[in-house]
Amino acid sequence: MSLLPPLVTELVSFGCDSYPAVARQWPEHLHSFHQFDAILSGEVFLGAEGRAPFRLRRGDALLTPPMVRHAHRTRKGFCVGLFKFHLAPRFWPLLGSKSFQVKLSPAALQSIEYAQRVWSEKSPLRNHMATSALTICLVEAARAAPDATKSHESTATPDAFRAQLWRLLERVENNPYRAWTVAGLAADCHLTPDHFAKRFREALAQAPLEYLLRARMRAAAHELATDPDLPIKEVAAASGYATVHAFTRAFRRVVGASPARFRRTPSEL
User: Fold this and answer.
1) What are the start and end residues of each CATH 1.10.10.60 domain in the chain?
2) How far is Cα 78 from Cα 224, in angstroms, rounded to an integer?
3) Would you say 211 and 204 are in contact if contact means Cβ atoms under 8 Å apart?
4) Pairing between strand 24-29 and 100-103?
5) Model confidence over 145-190: pLDDT tens digits?
6) Where in the chain is the domain with CATH 2.60.120.280?
7) Angle of helix 208-226 relative to helix 244-255, nearest 10 degrees?
8) What's the rounded Cα separation, in Å, for the pair 257 and 263?
9) Using one digit for the tens of pLDDT, what is the confidence trace for 63-82?
10) Are 89 and 173 in contact (CB under 8 A)?
11) pLDDT under 50: residue ranges of the chain
């Protein structure tokens, strides 16, 4: 008997925060994990990637993928259940690559509020309870995702190729700086590079090289943000680039800013 794979590989943090009814604004920032903002009361505006802000009230939520810039502002008080987490790679195509709004069911809201009570009591099971509440929310988010791959059923119940692919992606995420190649990944699946690339795009709606680049840049962004004294040239070398110029070009393509500028702007990595 096989168990279903977990949606979440790590819960980075969880909390329910309340803010008073005064005008306030959080600057644009990004991070290397997924974020799920569930509004429990009040009203807040959340903007992402230059889009018109999403207006969220109780029962609304916003799913923000990694490396997507977003900002918050409000003129009214609000309470938010905030999850920061690492999504299992096999489920990335279900939630897409852009921020989107979700209407939560009463059951999902109750699960968040119950998880908060357990969390505040510092129960030894609080991580499990928060992850369970998040899983309920993510199932509802996957059903509402506008940017996700159309083949939801085949992604949720993978064929032999997808079963191999998810294991490969987990290896990539665990070691993003390795010199991965499409030919090497294809060989692991016993496919030609062309056929592997075709199946990869069907499963994840992006080319293999694009996925590998984004995985590498997520890791590089994390290092730059968490160690401000680490020279950029060392991050460039670790991530496989012979020159800082080449690394900067790739980093800017994914993040939207140079490594130096990225370090000067707000982030939560």
Assistant:
1) 158-264
2) 32
3) yes
4) unpaired
5) 875 544 444 444 457 887 788 888 888 988 999 999 999 999 999 9
6) 8-144
7) 100
8) 9
9) 998 878 888 888 788 999 99
10) yes
11) 1-2, 149-157, 269
* 58 token code pair: 């109780």
Q: Say if domain 158-264 classifies as CATH 3.20.20.80.
A: no
Give me 24's structure tokens: 């306030």
Are the C-beta atoms of residues 69 and 19 closer than 8 Å to each other? no
Is residue 258 helix, strand or coil?
coil
- Which two structure tokens, joined as six digits, stand for 104? 């939560």
Mean pLDDT of the chain: 86
Proportion of the chain in helix, strand, coil states, percent, rounded to 5: 45, 25, 30
pLDDT at 150: 46
Determine the topology of domain 8-144 in CATH: Jelly Rolls (2.60.120)
46: β partners: 54, 72
How many Cα neighbours within 13 Å face the side chain of 64? 28
Amino acid at 176: P
